[in-house]
Design goal:
Blueprint lengths: L1 H11 L20 H5 L13 H6 L19 H11 L3 H16 L17 H7 L3 H13 L22 H8 L4
Helix pairs in contact: 4-5, 5-7
Length: about 180
């Protein structure tokens, strides 16, 4: 019965792909299959000592680190991030989290991981934005992997400046002793 109502709703208010505008079909959410499969994947999770892991060397001990997609100015990944971070589209984060988890699970990336901990926002920033985009991604990952998520185990001690226009070193300094 719910399918009939959903189909009727979609007839009058069709859902469309965030990137290409094509009408989404049953089973698609936020992105059509063509756009989702065409996103520029890094495949870093398949490489030991990949570029993301190297970013943490000498700072904190990490066993695995990866980036799911390549970011390019004006690219599709940028558009998705803007939707998630600045336009309040939380569904983008959950869909991308599920897509990332599905691909990374095949390489056993999550083996031995007991808990997913999203990077916390300061309460003031969370109140202004209304949600934590990191939590959206983590929720999607948790759904696919079955690994529980905890949003309270790590807290942000103080409010800090935006990272948007900072370089890599300045970003690291900006978050030192923040959690």
């Amino acid at each position: 019965m719910m399918s009939i109502w959903t189909d009727l709703w979609n007839l009058f208010f069709p859902r469309s792909c965030l990137l290409c505008g094509r009408q989404l079909v049953t089973g698609e959410s936020v992105l059509c299959l063509k756009c989702l499969s065409g996103l520029p994947r890094t495949q870093f999770h398949l490489w030991k000592d990949n570029a993301v892991e190297c970013n943490f060397w000498g700072k904190i001990p990490v066993e695995h680190a990866t980036s799911f997609l390549f970011y390019a100015k004006g690219g599709n990944v940028r558009q998705l991030l803007y939707e998630l971070k600045y336009h309040g589209n939380q569904e983008v984060g959950e869909v991308m989290g599920r897509a990332m988890a599905s691909e990374l699970m095949r390489s056993h990336f999550f083996d031995g991981i007991d808990l997913i901990v999203p990077v916390p926002l300061h309460q003031r920033k969370k109140h202004l934005r209304g949600y934590n985009q990191s939590e959206c991604l983590a929720r999607g990952i948790s759904v696919v992997t079955g690994i529980p998520m905890d949003t309270e185990i790590v807290i942000r001690n103080r409010y800090n400046d935006t990272q948007t226009h900072k370089g890599q070193y300045a970003r690291w300094e900006n978050v030192r002793n923040l959690f």
